[in-house]
User: Fold these one by one.
Assistant:
Number 1:
Amino acid sequence: MFRWFDDRLGIAGWTRGGLRKVFPDHWSFLFGEVALFCLVVLVATGVFLTLFYVPDATLVTYEGSYLPLHGQRMSAAYESVLDLSFDVQAGLVMRQVHHWAALVFVAVIVVHQLRVFFTGAYRKPRELNWLIGIGLLVFALAMGITGYSLPDDLLSGTGLRIIYSAVISIPFIGPWAAFLLFGGEFPTEAIVSRLFVFHIMLLPALLLGAVGLHLAILWRQTHTQFAGEGAREDRIVGKAFWPSQVFKSTGLMLLTAAVLALMGGLIQINPVWTYGPFDPTRVSAPSQPDWYVGWLDGALRLFPPIEFTLVGVTIPSPFLPGVLLPGLAFGIMTLWPFLESWVTGDHREHHILERPRDAPVRTAIGVAALTVFVVLTLSAGNDVASLILRIPVEETTNLLRFAVVVLPVVFAVITYRICRELQRRELASLAGRPVAVRLERNEAGGFTPEDE
Ligand code: HEM
């Protein structure tokens, strides 16, 4: 059979090269793959859910088997999710596996991105894969938000209201963009079917296309690798694609699917029947979104209600925390590889990774950004924290405001110090021992300042 294809497509050479391709044998290179396998589970369970989900906001009276909501007026979309949970065989476990896979998917993407960031794997020639990666993160977040809002329950409806107020707060184009997205003033009949089109068609197409491109570029550029064991800028050390990487990845895929199935079968998530159908006149407390939008919610809760006028246009208070801040954060993240090489003047190719200690400034900045992200995410639960700590929510909020400003600086300084100390100790341990260092001459035949 292979010869048949080779006769017609001439694939022997490519396949032989592909089967021998070397993959670095380090656990930190597995996060990208786990994200990939979460995506496989998401698509498989998602297809099942679309067979029963009804993307319709028309009001109906519930007559299904969940008695506490009997006779309740609700949207056909919410009703179909109740039916999926109580009347469709395996419906509830599929819903749960899908939801857990979404939460884990975004978490693994973030960990993968942190791995790439703290080891400098985005440096030349991998800036393009970093840019595509940021796109993947944005698509994954959008998939999460649209999917999470499809049941049309009270909690996700509250989330949509917050998104609506952030969109409408954008100067000059806000009302137009909100109308385009929501089909009118929130809540609208159109939003459920629009979310459905985004969630099952537009965003998956963008996501799968970007993943394909991401992996194709990776295959073309090969992986980076850690220093040591004969690794060189022009030579990869590791295991061949066939058989070891294939079996390792297959095992990892089955393990990922098994863990997600266990979570879906054993741990309740998003019990929409306890929230009730969406009703714009009601909001329940505490209302927390899924973890990956917690930082946005937290920023809206912590930011003082600043309203200002710009060339005669009033800029409502959700704009700064809900639009400008996230825009800035994603802007800096996207441009990071270019900003770093511009500041350092380092435009060389890098296939050998750096350890966090080798780049103290980058590591300190990364830790500071992560601290802001964590404090903002925790701030999405300021009301819950106040209940637990038995202190007024205003005090909790002020405490978190203090933390989001001070903690990143403190942790950045500590991290920088730790990196420098680790470097110093390593150099001390090397003192007196001969070391072989490989230096590359630059175009002019000389050495860069660092190498000197
Ligand atoms: C759906 C989301 C994603 C999937 C499925 C994915 C998949 C992968 C896989 C399988 C690898 C090779 C193994 C590894 O290094 O883990 C990889 C490498 C890479 N990814 Fe991603 N990735 C995703 C998102 C991202 C994001 C958000 C970024 C950064 C913003 C990113 C940047 C990179 C870079 C720069 C490499 C090359 C790293 C190297 O050669 O060491 N990826 N990705």
Note: The CA atoms of residues 197 and 379 lie 32 Å apart.
Number 2:
Amino acid sequence: MLQKSKHTSLIKTEAKRLGFLSCGISKAGFLEEEAPRLEKWLTKNMHGEMSYMENHFDKRLDPTKLVEGSKSVISLLLNYYPDQQQNEDAFKISKYAYGTDYHFVIKDKLKELLHTITTEIGAVHGRAFVDSAPVLDKAWAAKSGLGWIGKHSNLLTKQTGSFYFIAELIVDLDLEYDTPVTDHCGSCTACIDACPTQAIVDPYVVDGSKCISYATIELKNEIPAHFSNKMDDWMFGCDVCQDVCPWNRFSKSHKEPLFNPNPKLLSMDKKDWEEITQAVFSEIFKKSPVKRTKFTGLKRNIDFLKKG
Ligand code: SF4
Ligand code: SF4
């Protein structure tokens, strides 16, 4: 018992030192409550063209099937709320994509955390996951008491809102487990009311195929006509449901220099974005998550916005 408590506190202290906002831990096992929810969401085709969401159904609900011998899921949050935002007259990029791709930044931190665990505790086997399809990161973070899943389906907390990344380290080590916090959405419906495409079809249910994030990032072909005039000037992702959430009044700026944007990204106005060239794209989005759409994808989104 003493060992477990010592190991747990070592991991949480190290997570803090590495700059994570918080760290919560759950026993690895089958996510009973999530199973019917995920199945219903997939059956209703709310994942649209994101076919990877259908893969590894069993593994996604049970990390012991994903990482052999795993005993604990360590969930970690990393703040990305920027202290500066884009020019007001610009096509918009989701705040999480301002700086260096979070996959790189977080993977490095998780590697360091695992290194400390193996150095201090011994032969612990673990795997790191960052926004990775096989792990239901929000469900694990909520189970571990890091926040509750709001009506917009993002994880949020009373202290820090929802602008952070979620990552997991799944390890074959017994630890002390945290308990979930209560839901504080109450009677609020701000996110549902503000969503430009009515993608939040019911409280806590987002139809991914109607979401602007999906249209601007996941879609490989043309953006469907039903998004016309509803994109609210978003060219990569969408933050509306989080921007209007009252708990995000408490967001504080991140302290990760790698998440700082290229100054040009902040200053460019709509005209600049309309005229963007491959060279400018490569300069501003070096190592950025925006590279996922490539230059042609971002151009497609801008052209769609230009049409109205
Ligand atoms: S990200 Fe934008 S489009 Fe998607 S649910 Fe939130 S407000 Fe709606
Ligand atoms: S806007 Fe309101 S309903 Fe939506 S997540 Fe925030 S508190 Fe919950």
Note: The two ends are 62 Å apart (CA to CA).
Number 3:
Amino acid sequence: MNGNTESKIHQSGLGTKELITYFREKCKICGHHRIMHDEKGICEGVMNKPCNSGCEGFVVE
Ligand SMILES: [Zn+2]
Ligand SMILES: [Zn+2]
């Protein structure tokens, strides 16, 4: 983990455990794991299956 990522996590107010739990969950909108989403919350799809949902599902619950 580089310093930039670490500072982002710190700013988000989420701990590592919360982040891991969060990204392991599937997105309710497109059904992919949230780790597939880019930093803007847009789904980038999985492997050779692009997801065109345009999902903006990164909502801190
Ligand atoms: Zn998706
Ligand atoms: Zn999604």
Note: The chain has two helices and no strands.
